[in-house]
Amino acid sequence: MRYILSILLLLTLLTIATTADAGYRDIFGKEFLTKPWAGGLVEESVCIECHTSDIIKPEFRDIPQEWKKSWHYHNDVSCENCHGGDPEDAEMAMSPERGFVGTPKYSEVPEVCGKCHIGILKNYLESGHGKALKASKTGPNCVTCHGSHNIQKASIKIINESRCSKCHSYERAKIMKQALFLTEKKIRDIDNDLKKLKSEGVFTDEEDKSLFRTHVEYRTLFHTVNVDLVKQSTDKFVKKLGLIEEKIDKTFKELEFRKNFSVFLMMVFAGLGIVIFLLSRTYKD
């Protein structure tokens, strides 16, 4: 009799121990892994096939590998999104009828990037950078700071003496970097906290979207290259990011409570098991 009771008790403990976290993990598995920012795979296109073959000039063969290391690749932005054309039809891949534009002229690069980065394009064109490009056709464009195919997720690391001093003194850029530091740090900290929650199986879709929207707005503002405007807007961004942090802190506390409660239940049932075992022996004696 006591063996049956012990087996039933063990099964009950296992069920309780796994139930506390099951909600998070199930939702994570069903929902988060299907989201675009989970890192969707991009199918090989005729563009990739051609650029990795012997028929293409050697200087163009590294482009697919550079792109596959980029932020664009990890967000499903492919060749045709920037260059147009048909990625599924080899004969029409470079046809103007399918929207192929090839490599844009240097002065037209901002408009190509601005097809997606609309707010950034507006601020860039009104900035000193944008005005310099339009006036001289040689001022800095998007590629000057971000590169072309191996484009990485933007951060204030992009502002450095080596890059900025190619065109002007680093002093003004340094002041801009200092003005951005607080907001950048909070974004980075929140991003790391969200990664920790995901590793625990927590579904963070709402917080991810809030951070993404705030991040985009922040990047858009930066492209004004207006230090005073950035300083004036810092409090607004800190307040928005603070609201996200509050939700994350609440989730961490709830997660800790669930873990502690699971341990508490295990201890309670373990105690009950011992009592039942002792009672069964007493009854037998």
CA gyration radius, whole angstroms: 28 Å
Low-confidence parts, pLDDT < 50 over ≥5 residues?
17-41
Rounded average pLDDT: 85
Strand content: under 5%
**Biggest pleated sheet:** none
N-to-C SSE string, H for helix and E for strand: HHHHHHHHHHHHH
In oligomeric terms, what are we looking at?
A: single chain
Task: Calculate the terminal CA-CA distance, rounded to whole Å.
Answer: 13 Å
How many distinct helices? 13
Describe this entry's structure for a reader.
With 285 residues, this protein is an all-alpha fold. The chain contains 13 helices and no strands. α7 runs parallel beside α12, α11 (170-199) runs antiparallel to α12 and α11 (170-199) runs parallel beside α13. The longest helix has 58 residues, at 227-284. The model is unreliable at 17-41 (pLDDT under 50).
SSE blueprint:
Layout: H1 2-31, H2 46-51, H3 63-68, H4 71-74, H5 79-83, H6 109-113, H7 118-126, H8 128-136, H9 142-146, H10 161-164, H11 170-199, H12 205-222, H13 227-284
Helix pairs in contact: 1-13, 7-8, 7-12, 11-12, 11-13, 12-13
Put the structure in a nutshell.
With 285 residues, the protein is mostly helical. It has helices spanning 2-31, 46-51, 63-68, 71-74, 79-83, 109-113, 118-126, 128-136, 142-146, 161-164, 170-199, 205-222, 227-284. The two termini are 13 Å apart.
